[in-house]
């Protein structure tokens, strides 16, 4: 007997019945792991071969589909890991200097500032927006938000300090100053 063959003929017949009954469902599961139909067939075949070798050790045959799906999943992950290195571009294909244009700079600036502002508390964002986007004075902000002028000034100072201490904003600022 080979290493993959179950001991009893009854187990082989049992496995054949299982494959006949569940093949369509298992092929659908394999198709979810790989977009190519031929690769899905190969993946199902690989999973069935491995489960056939362990068929006698599966105590509850009602959950055998879970073993097959897990085997296919593990095999596909191994394939991805094996071929992952081939997807990197050759070093001679990379440009000598980074590609940078004004639109990329604007998008990065907006993204970094949006993230930094989103990290601030709501009250800090309100004061910053009224001061720098709305061009309101400290007394106008205080009146609008129902707080004292001193609170507006201290809130503004803390919000600006938090933005300056933000690593992404600091890096972006250094890049802009260097350019």
TrEMBL record:
Signal sequence interval, chain numbering: none
UniProt superkingdom: Bacteria
The keyword Transmembrane is assigned to this record: no
Keyword line: DNA-binding, Sigma factor, Transcription, Transcription regulation
Domain HTH luxR-type: 117-178
Keyword Transcription attributed: yes
Family: Belongs to the sigma-70 factor family. ECF subfamily.
NCBIfam families (UniProt xref): SigE-fam_strep, sigma70-ECF
Family matches, as PANTHER family: ECF RNA POLYMERASE SIGMA FACTOR SIGM, RNA POLYMERASE ECF-TYPE SIGMA FACTO
UniProt name for this protein: HTH luxR-type domain-containing protein
